[in-house]
Automatic annotation (TrEMBL):
It comes from Streptomyces radicis. The lineage of its organism: Bacteria, Bacillati, Actinomycetota, Actinomycetes, Kitasatosporales. GO terms for molecular function: protein-disulfide reductase activity. This is DUF393 domain-containing protein.
Amino acid sequence: MRTLPVLVYDGDCAFCTSCVRFAERRIGPRCEATPWQFADLAALGTDERRASHEVLWITPPGRVHGGARAVAKLLLSAGGGWAVLGAALTLPPVSWAARGVYRLVADNRQRMPGGTPACAVPPARRPPAA
C-alpha cells in the first residue's frame, strides 16, 4: 500500500511539467509526482481519459481528486502558508472560481508560458462536462 499521495500529470506537456517542477522546488508537497504516461493508472483508480484531461491527486487509500481540487490538496500537503491557500481553494465561492480558472488554463495550456502545440488536449479525448 502506498504511504504518500500520488500527483499524476501530463508528462508530454511542457507547461504541466514546468508547473510540477516548480511545485516540487518551491512548494514542497508531500507526494510522489509521476507523469500519467508512466503510471499504472488502473492501479491508481483512474484512466487515461481523465489523467490526460486534468492533474490528479490520488490519496493512499485511492480517492481521486482532479483539477483545482487536486491543486488544493497539493497545497494542503505542503503545510504552512501553502496550506492556508489550499484550504481557501476548497471553500465556496473561491472553489467555484478556482474550478473555472483551472479549466480555462488546462484547456489552453498550449498557449501558456512554456506550452507547445503538443500540450493541447484534443477535444475527442476530453471527458464530457460534469
